[in-house]
Amino acid sequence: MSAVHSLRRRFSSQPLKVPYVMLRIVAGLAVTLIAGPSAWPADDIGSLTKEAERLAWLKNWTRAEPLYAKIEAHHRERGDARNALFAEISRLRGQLPTLSLIATSGKLADWLEHPLVQNDAPLRLRCLTVKGDVDMDIDSDLARRDWQEAKDLSHELGDAAWENRATGELGIIAFLQGDSGAAVMMVGQALKTAQTLGDVAAQVRYLALIGSGMSRFGDTDRGLAMIDKAIALSEATEGLGIPFLAYSQRAGVLIRMNRLREAEDLLRRTGSMAESKGSIGYQADVLIELAKIYTLQDRTDDARTALLRASDLARSVDGHRLASIAEFELSKIAVGRRDYSAAEHHAFASVSEMKKAGDVYLLPSHMAQQAVVLAAQGRASEADAVFDAATDIVEAMLVNVANPNARSGLLTAMERIYTEQFRLHARPSGKLSKAFHVIEKARGRSISDLMGTATLRGNTARLTAAERRLSKLQLQLISTSSTRQRKRLLNAILEAEQDLSPMIAAVNRTRMRSQREPVELSTLQRSLRPDELFVEYLVSEPESFALVISRRTAIVHALPGSAALSKTAERFGNSLRTSFDEQLARTLFRDLIPFAASSRARRLIIVPDAFLHQLPFEALYMADGPVVNTHVVSSVPSATVWAAARLAGAQPRSGFAVLAVGAGPSAPSATAVKTPPINRALFDFDGSSLPELRSANTEARMISQLFGAGGTVLVGENATEVEFKALPLRRFTIMHFATHGVTSRKFPDRSALVLHAGSGGTSEDGLLQAREIANLALSAELVTLSACQTASGRVLGTEGIANL
Fold this sequence. Notes:
5-stranded mixed beta sheet; 4-stranded parallel beta sheet; 16 strands
């Protein structure tokens, strides 16, 4: 035991970069070796053990495996059952890519019942962590039990590094089982702790998975940056295993970004490495991603061949999740070929395999594919039941989503489920009220759920400190013009936001459990006035739909498919910036709102979808001129949001309380100067600056005066973020902002209204960002953003534009 205590003292004053349990094992093995004869000198077997454990900690199990084989043989020769078993379990982990996962999990489960393992904590920890790795790919419930016991055991042993790894794995399992809020908190904290402990292998794993999750939830640019960081860290660390996970996840993000050639090159390199290492699971993974590329390139025969091979490979090692994904893609190809028998076979196999894996996140999409096949075969009631079961799972996941942006991302990822079920009921034989209810579950959901919930309050001191750090970095970014410095600061901001995510998730957890029930069709109809027509769009292929609702009627109109509509809408949008194209305006009116010409309604309330969020319906042309000449057009996120707002607006008010903010200069320049281009991508690496808003202060004062005395005006040097947040914001019924607006398509929650930063020492940066606005306590009936491009940004399907 003296060797153990010596090692412990040696490392106690340094950051813990190797788990204490590993040091105990190494020391124990070294002491054992000195005690008797061996085929190797004691010093050699000790060095061999240390190197094997170093490689294992770096997750380079392939290189560690032959070393453990030698160590196992050595201890078996000496009759040392304990150390031989430890080496055998470790060797098994190195051979895992070629083994049956179910058989291996069973063998490890048997060992856990062995008295030797039950009475030796370090040996049991190794068995649990290897079993946790095995079970992650076959049964998430089994994996959760493995890693929870490993976490508890690590805590008892005082091994902070292994306890943190177990926490991270439990976070990944939480995501697979549908609790994204817990996943954000646990994996985010595990990443932070791994950085503190210098655990590079864990950092690479968590960065890759966090990046992939961001991409799946619509944040592709930030997600790619996280994955690239994982790859760079891996390639800079000697001895680390090949980052197959990071390479695979990067390829997936590139495919979603339509960078297909780059993705294919990466996948072919990754596939060659996986084949050379005998990694069957990653070979299957690569084939699945290649098949997605082939499908996008209309190479369906190549895609089908790759997927069949991937399914066979995955099944050969009991890889339920990978087999399920391959079958899912095969079913989609079969539907495209109208081979519904094959499509049904693959779809049912996909769901069966995914249920075995216990992956709740992917299961609803696979169930939706099964429902699509049933609907195509005319089995509508069966399809509807499967769709309902899939959306029930999504609803359960939404309860645990940590913040509005993540909720939007999840709904965007699951959008096909709602779209296809809507299509089922939009048929003549369908039920229109059900079609409306289905689409309202997804449409504008994050805004709907935020309405009426408590605002984000009671921040912990830790959260506040993280926010101050982010504000400081953003202030530095605003004030620098150095390209090199901006790059450094942008990377630092990305890290600060990542640190902030698990803290916000923890504070938001209770608040975000609130969910508003979708408004019923009959309720919406009763709330409409005689001159109002409510139009809800769903853009899809091969046809789109407009659900047109009045007080007495509800009708579905079939429209052109999304590809044709998108092309015309894009051309029309371009014409608005150059020379107006009346013919395109007439074409879009005919394609999108022909019913407006024959309706007596003069108020159109529109719920757009996809690219229609960026289309000015008022500018479309009827037979006798533009729509704006005869109709009042309103755009709303959803019928549920609109109905809730109308109900709130019906409450009696005793006058108006006005707040007008003008972020103009305190003392405008005496003479006009040529202003530089306005920076509309403040956080997307653009060094241009913001010009003075010479009339903003006057505009704010004039707005306030329109409603008589008593309005609150913040202008010039008083228009600071600190002053604004200090006001009783819930009191104002009208708010007007004459400021700069900066947008970010890559990072929508960074988009901001630009106020003044205020005097030195303030904790605010003057950027009233979208993520902050979402947490303000407001009850205004009218808010005007007199700023450029506050309605532009990235479109998130049914959720609309992600921006201010």
